[in-house]
Amino acid sequence: MRFRHAQTYSKPEAPFVEFTIPVDRTSLAGYTAVTGEPLVIDDAYFLPPDVEYSINRSFDERNGYRTKSMLVIPMKDHKEEVIGVLQLINRKRNPEAMLASPSDVEQQVVPYSKRTVELVTALAGQAAVAMENSRLYEEIERLFEGFVKAAVHAIEQRDPTTFGHSGRVANMTVELAGVVDRADEGIYRAVRFTREQLREIRYAGLLHDFGKVGVREEVLVKAKKLYPLHLDLIKGRHDFVRRTAERDFWKRRAEFLEAHGREGYDGFLRALEEEQRAGIGSLDRFLHAVLEANEPTVMPARRFEELLELARYTYEDSTGQAHALLSEEELRYLTIPKGSLDETERLEIESHVTHTYRFLQQIPWTRELQHIPIIAYGHHEKLDGGGYPRRVTGEAIPIQTRMMTISDIFDALTAADRPYKPAVAPAPALDIMTEEVRIGQLDRELFRLFVDAKVFELNA
Question: Minimal CB count within 10 Å: which of 188, 262, 326, 429?
Answer without folding.
Answer: 262
